[in-house]
Design a protein that fits this description.
Layout (H helix, E strand, L loop, with lengths): L13 E5 H15 L3 E5 L1 H6 L2 H11 L3 E4 L2 H9 L5 E7 L2 H9 L3 E4 L2 H13 L7 E6 L14 H10 L3 E7 L9 H21 L7 E5 L1 H6 L7 E4 L23 E6 L2 E5 L4 E2 L5 E2 L4 E6 L15 E4 L2 E6 L7 E6 L9 E5 L7 H8 L3 H6 L7 E4 L8 H13 L1
Parallel strand pairs: 1-19, 2-3, 2-9, 3-4, 4-5, 5-6, 6-7, 7-8, 8-9
Antiparallel strand pairs: 1-10, 10-18, 11-14, 12-13, 14-17, 15-16, 15-18, 16-17
Helix pairs in contact: 1-3, 5-6, 7-8
The protein binds pyridoxal-5'-phosphate (PLP).
Pyridoxal-5'-phosphate binds next to helix 9 and strand 9.
């Protein structure tokens, strides 16, 4: 067809995800938390990295199961052939529980109403899909979903006594594990008390898995590890730890945001740059345009951040626009169209932690904020770096970390 784009279309701006880094991180984390099981949190498209590929790599690296936020995230993994255990962390309604139960996905029950919906859902399941596996969520200090600790024994017993349900787990979520160890200990004490009371209330032989830790808990507070840990951000190379925590195992960020220079020009002093003309060059300068903008997740507030272009650290100047941004270098900068731009990587360019500091946010928001318009390309074992562009991106990304 005349005028067709190359297939698959390769944008100069792309997120390259190193599956070896995911695998190695999972391996290091599994070793660090053993004998607790490592559950990889792959909600929000694996924090922007691509849920299916990351899930597979994390499982290969030693993760034992997966956690997502939404039913559709679990079903997308199943549709892609992921057979591992999957827990939907968020609340679900009866109709969703039926579909999840048919797919063998574990659901969260956080109050008596949800327990009732789970009972009804289980009865709507085909015989082969029963019992419906549920995890009871107890709120020990997060103030989000979850029953009060004193409600847990009665709820757990009701779930365990229903022949169509399987009480597979009881869990809580740590609110301050990366900031306040004393608060974490208080939550863990509340959870331990709930555990003793729930255990006493359960019928003989019912032994749910107990889990509480996120990345920070798993790495900084060994007592939070219990039977399984739910690790997200550390898998993506950005362990968030409280002050005084022991150093984490070696982890590396799998994701780099790369692009190429799309336009260059030498400009005289006083040249205005971008909307609002908020920046004017102080002298003769080279301006290079990069085809990435806030519609890709390169936020407007990133103006001033130094990125790596053509091997040099240069600041983003003027306003970041929807699809393009401008960097400024000295007048003798030998930059040309097609030169490599590392917008986010660590090492060669700023990493997600540097973006987060610049934006006044956290790496989670940076990573999940990369939009669907940015193609994800996979390198490392199992990556599909086949095209010339992907191959070159892949081979050079090794150096970019
Ligand atoms: C219930 C629950 N468990 C575990 C995690 C993983 O947290 P982290 O990415 O800090 O490891 C999250 C993420 O927000 C969560 O909501």
């Amino acid at each position: 067809m005349s005028g067709a784009l190359p297939s698959p279309p390769i944008r100069a701006t792309r997120a390259v995800v190193d599956l070896d880094a995911v695998r190695d991180n999972a391996r290091a984390l599994a070793r660090a938390v053993a004998p607790a099981r490592l559950w990889a949190v792959v909600k929000a498209d694996a924090y922007g990295h691509g849920a299916v590929r990351v899930a597979q790599a994390a499982l290969e690296g030693g993760a034992d199961a997966l956690c997502v936020a939404l039913p559709q995230e679990a079903l997308a993994l199943r549709a892609a052939g992921v057979g591992a255990g999957i827990l939907v962390l968020g609340p679900t309604r009866e109709a969703e529980m039926v579909v999840l139960g048919e797919a063998g996905v574990w659901v969260t029950v956080a109050d008596a109403a949800a327990a009732g919906e789970a009972r009804s859902a289980a009865r709507r399941l085909p015989q082969a899909a029963r019992p419906l596996a549920v995890h009871l969520k107890v709120d020990t200090g997060m103030g989000r979903i979850g029953c009060r600790p004193e409600e847990a024994p009665r709820l757990a017993r009701a779930l365990a006594e229903d022949a169509h349900l399987h009480l597979a787990g009881v869990f809580t979520h740590l609110a301050c594990a990366d900031e306040d160890p004393a608060f974490t200990r208080w939550q863990l004490e509340r959870f331990a008390r709930a555990r003793a009371e729930v255990t006493a209330a359960l019928p003989q032989g019912v032994r749910p898995l107990w889990h509480a830790a996120n990345s920070a808990g798993a790495l900084a507070e060994p007592r939070s590890r219990l039977d399984a840990v739910r690790v997200g951000i550390a898998l993506y190379g950005y362990p968030a730890l409280p002050p005084g925590a022991p150093p984490p195992p070696p982890l590396r960020p799998p994701l780099s945001l790369l692009s190429r220079v799309s336009f260059v020009k030498r400009v005289p002093p006083g040249t205005p740059v971008s909307y609002g003309a908020t920046h004017r060059t102080a002298g003769e300068r080279m301006l290079a345009t990069i085809p990435a903008g806030y519609a890709d997740g390169v936020r407007r507030a990133l103006t001033g951040l130094e990125v790596a272009v053509a091997g040099r650290r240069v600041p983003v100047v003027g306003r970041v626009t929807m699809d393009q941004l401008v960097v400024e270098g000295p007048a003798d900068w030998e930059v040309k169209v097609g030169d490599r731009a590392v917008l986010l990587a660590g090492g060669e360019g700023p990493d997600a932690a540097a973006w987060a500091r610049h934006l006044g946010t956290i790496p989670y928001e940076v990573l999940t904020g990369l939009s669907a318009r940015v193609p994800r390309l996979y390198v490392g074992r199992g990556g599909a770096a086949t095209g010339a562009e992907e191959g070159s991106a892949g081979s050079r990304d090794g150096a970019a970390r």
